[in-house]
């Protein structure tokens, strides 16, 4: 064979090897992991990367707050619930599914945010039954932390993470924090209207952001993992009322043991109200209860109603203790008015006297006075929430000796 023929033959062989791609004998680089049920190999510059799709669960992501997995979909309902993970690669996308509220407009649709390495890069509302979002892209391989949080509350909207698509490898949950706190509350905890500083405006999921509310901010100040169980308009014995009649359909104690409660779910996709919460999945060091603002609209100055509130609050404390045996329970009230705070103190006294449990206390939060503005329906602004967070965090530090 001539020299020219040898060169031509070599070129043909090289081309055939290139076209054949990864043959049966091709091995993946040792730093490429296989996760999920769909995978392929792509070549980027000089680095081989895996492209794969997976369903988020505790094996590959950190679960934040209460979540529920149903038929391969990870459902988010309660405020500030979500996931966080790290991976090494060049791209990521997420496919979301929504409940019946996706066609109800911006006032009802679930609002969520994506954070890349701590920076918010997407803040939007789910407006379709299923939708895919590109959430990360880079020219070169890098290790990245991805966090997805639901900003709106459960009562008006729920959403599920159907799948996450990644170009890269080494997907892993972020580390758990040393301190864990559960917050139980109402619209204040949910961040109702915090993005709408016009007090005459009303509820909309588009202006609700739990990450700007006191509970989330308290957790951030203490570098704590958290879980929020909160519903706007809800109370201990009555939800918010304007006609002096008790609203028994908006109470937190009856739904505390559920995964969540929502008006937006429908059978055929997923009903959050039919799922019991497994308390072993999150055992907090501290439980903060902020309930009474809505009860106050019913109780007023009626001592018999205030006594009823205290008695039922004490009973709720028993339920909270049953499921959180090692936590200190801190009962706070005051941001939107402290007229029922003596009722909170009475509830703590009744509970401790009956059970002998001394790991429970109360804290009066500074009532808003307009100096830091008002948000929708006279709710706290972010600046007001920061004051409450500072007070709550300081009290937790004192109790736990941090």
Return the CATH architecture of the largest domain.
3-Layer(aba) Sandwich
**Range of strand content:** 25-35%
- Arithmetic mean of pLDDT: 89
So what's the oligomer here? single chain
CATH C-level of the largest domain: Alpha Beta
- Ends distance: 82 Å
Order of helices and strands: HEEEEEEEEEEEHHEEHHEHEH
- Name given to the CATH homologous superfamily of the largest domain: SGNH hydrolase
Question: Would you count the extended β strands for me?
Answer: 15
Q: Can you summarize the main beta sheet?
A: 10 strands, antiparallel
Principal-axis shape equals: globular
What is the total number of structural domains?
2
Supply Rg.
Answer: 25 Å
Contiguous runs where pLDDT drops below 50 for at least 5 residues: 1-47
Give an overview in words.
This protein is α+β, with helices and mostly antiparallel strands and 402 residues long. It has 2 domains: 38-173, Jelly Rolls, CATH 2.60.120.260; 179-400, SGNH hydrolase (Rossmann fold), CATH 3.40.50. The protein is built from 7 helices and 15 strands. The strands form 2 sheets. Strands 1, 2, 3, 4, 5, 6, 7, 8, 9 and 10 form a 10-stranded antiparallel sheet that branches. The protein has a 5-stranded parallel sheet with strand order 12-11-13-14-15, with helices on both faces. Helix 3 packs across helix 7. The longest helix has 21 residues, at 303-323.
């Amino acid at each position: 064979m001539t020299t020219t023929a040898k060169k031509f033959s070599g070129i043909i062989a090289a081309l055939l090897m290139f076209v054949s791609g990864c043959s049966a004998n091709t091995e993946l680089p040792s730093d490429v992991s296989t996760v999920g049920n769909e995978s392929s190999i792509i070549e980027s510059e000089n680095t081989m990367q895996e492209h794969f799709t997976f369903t988020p669960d505790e094996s590959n992501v950190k679960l934040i707050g209460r979540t529920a997995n149903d038929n391969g979909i990870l459902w988010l309902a309660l405020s500030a619930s979500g996931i966080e993970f790290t991976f090494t690669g060049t791209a990521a996308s997420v496919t979301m599914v929504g409940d019946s509220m996706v066609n109800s407009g911006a006032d009802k649709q679930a609002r969520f945010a994506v954070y890349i390495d701590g920076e918010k890069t997407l803040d939007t509302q789910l407006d379709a039954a299923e939708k895919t979002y590109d959430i990360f892209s880079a020219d070169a391989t890098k290790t990245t932390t991805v966090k997805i949080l639901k900003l709106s509350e459960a009562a008006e909207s729920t959403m599920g993470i159907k799948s996450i698509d990644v170009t890269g490898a080494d997907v892993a949950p972020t580390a758990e924090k040393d301190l864990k706190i559960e917050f139980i509350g109402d619209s204040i905890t949910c961040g109702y209207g915090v993005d709408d500083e016009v007090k005459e405006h009303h509820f909309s999921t588009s202006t609700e952001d739990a990450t700007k509310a006191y509970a989330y901010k308290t957790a951030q100040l203490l570098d704590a993992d958290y879980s929020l169980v909160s519903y706007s308009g809800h109370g201990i014995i009555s939800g918010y009322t304007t006609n002096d009649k008790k609203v028994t359909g908006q109470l937190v104690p009856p739904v505390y043991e559920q995964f969540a409660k929502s008006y937006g779910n429908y059978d055929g996709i997923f009903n959050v109200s039919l799922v019991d919460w497994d308390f072993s999945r999150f055992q907090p060091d501290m439980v903060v209860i902020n309930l009474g603002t809505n009860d106050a609209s019913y109780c007023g100055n009626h001592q018999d109603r205030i006594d009823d509130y205290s008695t039922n609050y004490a009973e709720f404390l028993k339920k909270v203790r049953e499921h959180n045996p090692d936590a200190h329970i801190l009962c706070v009230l005051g941001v939107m008015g402290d007229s029922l705070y003596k009722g909170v103190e009475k509830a703590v006294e009744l509970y401790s006297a009956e059970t002998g449990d001394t790991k429970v206390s109360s804290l009066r939060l500074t009532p808003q006075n307009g100096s830091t503005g008002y948000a929708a329906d006279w709710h706290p602004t972010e600046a007001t929430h920061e004051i409450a967070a500072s007070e709550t965090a300081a009290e937790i530090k004192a109790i736990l000796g941090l």
